[in-house]
Predict the 3D structure of the following.
Amino acid sequence: MSPISIRSLQAMKAGQEKFSVLTAYDATFAQLAADAGVEVLLVGDSLGNVIQGQDSTLPVTVDHMVYHTEAVVRGNRRAKRPALIMTDLPFMSYGNLEQGLESARKVMQAGAHMVKLEGDDWLIPLVESLGRQGVPVCVHLGLTPQSVNKFGGYRVQGREDDKAEAMLAHCIALEKAGTDLLLLECVPSTLAARISAAVSIPVVGIGAGADTDAQVLVMHDMLGLNSGFTPKFVKNFLTDGRNVQQAFAAYVAEVKSGQFPAAEHGFSA
């Protein structure tokens, strides 16, 4: 089968077929996830937490992202149907246009198919410039982990009416600027549903309810490998005697059927 592409994801949204996104940081798990049917592999700066043992994503560098992207690419190439690979640009690596373009160049040349940025419509000049140069972009809104110190912790975003309306406006403006994908983290389920209906590009959710076009989880979370606090939006799929690839396949199946996320995994306004 042909590899998953942006056109594949656009067709899924148009056909109201949900798709799955899962983090990957190495070749072995990348191949297992793609072979289980995961459509998008996110090389996330969450590697700072789950691979490096950091307290946040802030210490992650572009060089770290390049290294892990290269590893994921090698595993993905061996999959029966290669996934689309999306790589985070880490903290303070896109503070201005020149810096953002250089960071994107590095991870794209490492094999990524798309870059992910955290922010809102202040990113529009960079989104437009990347688009002109052939770099697809996903913009991450809501709870953006790189801004944890500004937020004062990991808090649900968009509960107040004015902030919800602002987030919706940001998403519409970002689509107009050429953004290819949106990711909403820890926003009220009703707001995520409104945004998903208001834009024609696919919307990925994490802690954003069941009405987005796709779901994403950190691999270690959905395998029950996290120690300590477990976020409300997480479900352990490595249960009932499953092996790792069966857990990945169960995640894909539940996302596509709408079984996951359930109401208990989302947030109210």
Q: What stands out?
A: The two ends are 41 Å apart (CA to CA). The chain has a mean pLDDT of 96. The chain has eleven helices and eight strands. The first strand starts at residue 19 and ends at 23.
